[in-house]
Structures are given as structure tokens and as C-alpha cells.
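Lab notebook, bench 4. The sequencing result for the construct came back, and we need a structural model before the next group meeting so we can plan mutations. Quick request posted to the team channel:

Model the 3D structure of this chain.
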Amino acid sequence: MTVILGPNRYGKAETRLVRVVRDGVVHHIKDVTVSSALSGDMEDVHLTGDNASVLTTDTQKNTVYAFARKHGVAEIEDFAILLARHYVESQPTVHHARVEIEEYFWDRIPVADDSAPGAEGKRHSFVRSGREVRTCLVHHDIDGTTTVVSGLKDLVVLNSTDSEFSGYIQDEYTTLPPTRDRVLATAVSARWRHLSEASPYGESYAEVRGCLLGAFAETYSLSLQQTLYAMGERVLNAREELCEVRLAMPNKHHFLVDLTPFGLDNPNEVFYAADRPYGLIEGTVLRDDAPAALFAWE
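Done. Here's the predicted structure in C-alpha cell form:
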């Protein structure tokens, strides 16, 4: 038997970065977490402990901060592309870079009259938004190929009606009763692949989010799978720069509480929200002419 080194990568995970843009008395916040992973000519470091080919993870962290100062952080996809290209193009031993970014939203705290005594400058006050987390994943290879995947996670949505679930397989272990009216709730994780790195990332993100929400709200659901497909289909019909959407949607079950022991009815009004176990529905929706993904989505 011969033992050999298989695929490998290393990097700095979850570098926290907050950048404040000071536009006079009005400030803007960019709050992100950046993770990088590099691979390439790394045999010696594994086999002999020779570190000559290694760009340290601490250097990767410092590069994130330095690039934030030098280049700013506008769309997270552009920042990820900038970092990934730098790692590959500046180091001959690095053949491939993977950069993943999560962005967290902050809402400005409104002030009724910021010209009043003591209120001046309150345009720098923020509250953490309860919105979803925006994400992106960029792969850049030594041959110059770049793949950009945008996304979001923790987009929590709920329909209080217009959802059924029936007609499924029933065997000796089935206890779930069919229902013609149920609460449908999920926390959407979605990723969408761009055909080109020249996409209008901010505009695209806003419309994709709107498509996901619109399809969820407007689809009379016979299953969460059907809703998933409707959401992905609407995204691809709306955005020609995208070719593939991957969705993961846990079924956040809401079970009707039996109130008959207390002499009460329950006309679909009182529910128990169960956090686990939960059904997990995952699927991919893509154009029939979508090019093969050159790099893994992970």
C-alpha cells in the first residue's frame, strides 16, 4: 500500500471586519465576516514540514484589513474577487483561492429632529437589523477562471394559510395526518450562480430577494418542495445573469394544539412551534443551458 497526499487547503476562517465610512456627519456601516482558503503547491509543507510555500493565515487576515482600508468594501462579491485574485496572483505557490463573505445589516436609528440640541450627529447611530444574512462565495484559479456565487441565509418567512400537505406515502409507521390548511414556515438559505463576474451584484441581490419572497407569498403550496421550485423558477426568469439557484429550506413545523381537554375548540389559531426535529427540503433549479460549475459550491 502507498499513502499519498490528497486534496488539501488552508486559510483563515471568520475574520471579523467592520468598516465605517464617514460621509461628513452621516456615517455608513459595513459589517462582514471573511473566510479565505488557499491551495496549490503545498506538498512539502505536509510531507516534510517545509513552510516556504505557505502564505500564513495571519497574513490572510491582515490582507483583509489592509484591502478594506485601501479599496473599501462596496459589494461583497467585488471585495471577495479582489482578495481571491490577490492571493493567487501575488504568490506563485498559491494556485487556487476560495473566499467566502457574510454581511450583516444595520438600520439607522431615526431622530425626529437632528438639529435639536443634543441630537446633532445622531446620523451615526444604528440598530442591528433582524434581516437575513447576505453571503457570497468566490473561487479564483491560477488559469484566471473565477466563479461567483451570491446568496443569503436565515431569511425567515411564514404563511399562516394557503398551504396543504396530503397524498403522501402512508405505511405502518406513518402517524402524520393529512392537512388542507396548515402554517408553512421556513428559514430560507439560497445561493445563485452568476454567468459572469461582471454582474450587477447589488441590484441582482435586491431583485432575487424580492423574487424569493414574492414566490413564497403568492404560491398556494401543496408541499414545501413545490414552493422551493416556484421560488427558484421566479429568480431565473427575472435575472438573466444567473444560471442556477440552490435552496435549502427547513420546515419549521407548527403543530395545532389540542385544547379539547380544556373544553375549548381550536380553529387553526393556537399552535406549538417545534424547533426540532424538522424536515429539511433542498433542491436546485437551473437553466437547461447552464454551463457546468467549474468549482464546487463549498
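The longest helix spans residues 201-218.
Will bring this to the meeting.
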